[in-house]
Amino acid sequence: MSNPADNLVIDFTSGAVAHRMRFGGGRGQALPKAIGMKGGKTPAIVDATAGLGRDAFLLASLGAEVTLIERSAVMHAKLAAALDVARAAGGEVAEAAHRMTLLQGDARDLLPDLAPEVVLVDPMHPPRGNSALVKKEMRLIREIVGVDADSTDLLRVALASAGKRVVLKWPQKAPLPDGIPRPSHSITGKSTRYDVFMV
Hints:
Rossmann fold; alpha/beta; single chain; 8 helices; 18% strand; 199 residues; seven-stranded mixed beta sheet; globular
């Protein structure tokens, strides 16, 4: 039986990640707007659920210092290797990678001491109601990291720890996790919603 981790590749130097960095629309994209990167502001960000690191890389490519937290040892190792390659690649990719700090651990334990301005939370999303297969990549990640049953707890810790705002990345039509207050506002992308909680 093959190990799902063997089939998952993280690469910041080419493909969709590099394309999004160069042609994605800069600070006009939904995520940077939700984070508060407007009017020349570049907040310090903690990505509490690093995953593939793509959102963190985008934000770092726009000038932000981003701390990534990943609790899965497998995903952490893959991210660390991908960041090493990116830092050795030179140019804009290396500059972005040098603004990224990767930590391993549970964000619920680490966030209070980090005292971030902005926290990005992108937990494993609830299973879709339709029968369409979730992208192969997301299926692999789910097999590696599980379902994030404690995402409501993480959001509560993020809201208590962030200096300015918490951004929840969530499926566009999915209800908020139980027990979470209504966001201050939301920014909607094609299939994703960024719920912004000003603190």
